[in-house]
Amino acid sequence: IPGYGDSPPVEMVVTAQGRRTFLDHVLQELGMQRPVLISPSMSGRFALPFLLAHGDRLAGFVPIAPVGTKDYTAEQYRGVQTPTLILYGDRDTRLAPQALQNLQHLPEHRVAVLPGAGHACYLDKPEDFHRALLGFLRQLK
């Protein structure tokens, strides 16, 4: 994620609109047509603005306890028709419940909870994570 960790700061990603535009450019450069966007943790700052503005360009959305869910209203989430798998570990007691509380307003969502997994549930329980993800992907049109 630009501006996090050891990556250099990028002026464009200071605002939600800039982060949405950045992600849009990445997807265009990769030539992706209706991808499934998987968004763990800090990437929510990029994925959520994109989802709310361009959710119709995604085949699916998989938020994994993303940050920034409280920045949007229930009404904004209700306007998104993108099939969504809300995925998290049951040991993530800080960010996951907040994300679930906000993201449950997405009309086309379902929830998968990974028992015994923390915030990085895909690292803690990779087989369970992949099973849930593949099950969701198979359901998409």
Tally of separate domains: 1
From the helix content, strand content and strand pairing, which structural class follows?
A: alpha/beta
Tell me, what's the shape? Answer: globular
CATH-level-2 architecture: 3-Layer(aba) Sandwich
Q: Please count the helical segments.
A: 6
Strand order of the largest sheet: 1-2-3-4
| Beta strands, count | 4
Tell me what portion of residues adopts beta-strand conformation: 15-25%
Low-confidence stretches: none
Under CATH, the homologous superfamily reads: Alpha/Beta hydrolase fold, catalytic domain
How can the largest sheet be summarized? 4 strands, parallel
Protein name: ABHEA protein
Keywords: Cytoplasm
GO cellular component, one term: cytoplasm
Organism: Platysteira castanea
Write a concise synopsis of the structure shown.
The chain is about 40% helix and about 15% strand.
Give me some keywords for this one:
four-stranded parallel beta sheet, 16% strand, alpha/beta, 141 residues, Rossmann fold
Model description:
- This protein is an alpha/beta fold and 141 residues long.
- It has a single domain (34-138), classed as Alpha/Beta hydrolase fold, catalytic domain (Rossmann fold, 3-Layer(aba) Sandwich).
- 40% of the residues lie in helices and 16% in strands.
- It has a four-stranded parallel β-sheet, with helices on both faces.
- β1 (36-40), α2 and β2 (60-64) form a beta-alpha-beta unit.
- It starts with 15 loop residues before the first helix and ends with a helix.
- 34% of the residues are buried.
- This is ABHEA protein.
- It is found in: Cytoplasm.
- Keywords: Cytoplasm.
- Its main location: cytoplasm.
